[in-house]
Structures are given as structure tokens and as C-alpha cells.
Design a protein that fits this description.
The protein is an alpha+beta fold. It has two domains: about 40-190, no CATH class; about 200-320, no CATH class. The chain has seven helices and 19 strands. The strands form three sheets. The chain has a nine-stranded antiparallel β-sheet with strand order 5-4-3-2-8-9-10-11-7. The chain has an eight-stranded antiparallel β-sheet with strand order 14-13-12-16-17-18-19-15. A two-stranded antiparallel sheet has the order 1-6. The radius of gyration is 30 Å and the shape is elongated. The protein starts with a helix and ends in a 10-residue tail after the last helix.
């Protein structure tokens, strides 16, 4: 009887040891349970090859192309303008983009981070919004249009602090601090560089001619350390306010890119610089939404200015007088 009990205990002990060994081996060899390692979604050596970016999100699609090391937004068909006024059979338009924003995206994709594995099942892919037809998406292309990275961005966790990620073709689902929806959740126009005069400084301006729509025309001229208004020499021009207005004008951004340049200018602002060059902004009449189209000398781009922006640039002459 005692021998039988000892044999049973030995067999049971061996069975427990075997189960423990299986469990330990499963932890070691199951890829889903391995220790998480740091990696980058896109290695720096591949980033230099990138010449195209496609981003799909709830606000639409953004397509960026690199030409001569400068990134442009490629507007195709009626996608490029909210009014949808460009037919699909017309050539694509290219708008300047914020180059630093592209750099921020590449910094995020090229940074080595620990991305914990959260699941690796088809059920998890569905539940976390990581199917190809439900997820947001970041595609980076290089060379002959081949994808260097095709990253799916799914739903956020319950606290909204982390996002779930999956590389297309992989089953593994990772989580990360949510910096990705900053790109996938933004409107396409968030990429636009809408600065109208990015390369000019206010202290180099010697004269400004302002022709306000349906109002007066006047000139501001630098004279020594002060400003004067030719034809109205009896008034004192406030130099601080004039310099501040010049900076506002040269740092102004459009509210959007427009469609056609103004056929006739209803207003204009022309600047003369110390080197003899000039820059002019030509303004159309207001449309039904109180928006105006602006053309810039030397530029092929057309900008949309909302009434608020128009009012901040086209000031009446009395605005510059000393009070």
C-alpha cells in the first residue's frame, strides 16, 4: 500500500514538473510572450529614400511628394478644395507644405521605442480597429513607389492615452503613446504652408502703398528713424504701430489655398525694399462667404483670406496716426 502511494506521488510530481517545463518553454518560444524590444517603425537609412507619403484618416487623404528635397502637397481631383471646383481630369496641383511637420512625422517613425505587444489574433485586429478598411493609415514610399512602411493606426485605449498599431501584413498588435493621431486625425490643409511672404524682413521695407477696397489709397514711407505719410504731412505717424503692422503683414498666412487668381484687383498692398525690389499682394472682391482671393507677385499660388484676415491687413490711414 505504501509503495503504491509513493509511486503515485512520484508520477504526480513528474507530471507537475513536466507541466511547469512546458509553461516555461511556452514563455520563451511564444513570440507573443517574448520580452518587448525597442525598435523604429522606419529605420533612418530608409527615411532618406522616402519620396512619397500617404496619410488616410477620418478627415480625408493627404498625399505628399518630395521634389529636389522639398515636400509638396499633391492635390488631386476635387479633393484639393472644399468647394470641389477642380475636375478629376485636370492635372494635379502641388502646394507648399510645412517642411518641419514632415520632419516631425519622420522623427516619430524613426525613433526607437519600446512598443508592447498587446495581441496577435484576428479577433484583436477587428476589435481594436486595425483592419485595412477601418484603420487610419500612414504609408511612406520610396524609389519606384514601393512602400517603405505601411502602418495601420487603430483605436485608442479606454483612457485615450495610448493608440494601437499594426504593420500591414503582420498579426502583432502594438500599443504606443498616442502621437500618431496628430497626423492621421488632422485635416489635409494642416500640412499647408500658407505663409505669403516667408523670406522678407520688416526692417528692410522702405515704403508701403495701401489701396483699400472701396476706400482711400495712401502711402507710408520710411524717413530716417520715423515714418511719414506723403500728401498728409501735417499728421504724426505712429512708428511703433507702423512697424507692428509691417510685421503682421509679412508674417501673415492665408486661410486656405484658392482656385483662380483675381481677374481684377479690388485692393492691393505693395512694398518697396531697400534693394529696389517690390512685393505686391493683389486682392479680389469678397465672395458670398466674405472670403477674398489674393495673388502674390512672383508666386503661382492663390490664397484665400477670410474677412478677419483682410481687416487686419487693409487698415484705414487713420489707424497709423498718433492719437
Amino acid at each position: 500500500m505504501a509503495m503504491t502511494y509513493k509511486k503515485k506521488a512520484a508520477v504526480l510530481s513528474a507530471f507537475v514538473v513536466a507541466l511547469a517545463a512546458v509553461y516555461i518553454l511556452s514563455l520563451v518560444f511564444d513570440p507573443g510572450n517574448r520580452r518587448d524590444h525597442a525598435f523604429a517603425w522606419l529605420e533612418p537609412s530608409l527615411l532618406v529614400m522616402a519620396d512619397g507619403i500617404e496619410i488616410y484618416g477620418p478627415e480625408g487623404r493627404s498625399v505628399l511628394k518630395r521634389k529636389n528635397d522639398i515636400w509638396f502637397f499633391q492635390a488631386e481631383g476635387s479633393d484639393y478644395h472644399p468647394a470641389g471646383r477642380l475636375a478629376f481630369d485636370q492635372p494635379a496641383l502641388e502646394f507648399p507644405v510645412k517642411q518641419e511637420r514632415v520632419g516631425d512625422l519622420f522623427a516619430l517613425l524613426g525613433r526607437r521605442e519600446v512598443y508592447p505587444v498587446r495581441a496577435s489574433s484576428s479577433e484583436g485586429i477587428q476589435r481594436l480597429g486595425l483592419t485595412e478598411d477601418s484603420a487610419s493609415r500612414i504609408i511612406v514610399r520610396g524609389g519606384a513607389g514601393l512602400p517603405l512602411l505601411d502602418l495601420l493606426v487603430g483605436s485608442a485605449d479606454a483612457l485615450g492615452r495610448e493608440i494601437f498599431l499594426r504593420r500591414t501584413g503582420w498579426n502583432k498588435i502594438y500599443s504606443a503613446e498616442d502621437h500618431f493621431s496628430f497626423f492621421t486625425g488632422a485635416k489635409p490643409r494642416s500640412w499647408y504652408d500658407l505663409r505669403m511672404f516667408p523670406q522678407f524682413a520688416a526692417d528692410s521695407v522702405q515704403q508701403a502703398e495701401i489701396i483699400c477696397p472701396n476706400r482711400e489709397a495712401y502711402i507710408l514711407r520710411r524717413s530716417g528713424g520715423r515714418w511719414i505719410m506723403p500728401g498728409n504731412e501735417n499728421v504724426s505717424v505712429n512708428a511703433i504701430r507702423t512697424e507692428a503692422w509691417l510685421r503682421t503683414f509679412l508674417e501673415a498666412e492665408g486661410d486656405d489655398f484658392g482656385f483662380n487668381a483675381p481677374e481684377e484687383a479690388e485692393g492691393s498692398i505693395t512694398l518697396w525694399f531697400g534693394d529696389g525690389s517690390t512685393q505686391a499682394l493683389l486682392l479680389s472682391s469678397a465672395d458670398g462667404q466674405n472670403n477674398r482671393r489674393a495673388a502674390i507677385s512672383g508666386s503661382s499660388f492663390v490664397y484665400v483670406l477670410a474677412e478677419r484676415k483682410f481687416n487686419s491687413l487693409f487698415r484705414e490711414s487713420t489707424y497709423f496716426f498718433d492719437q
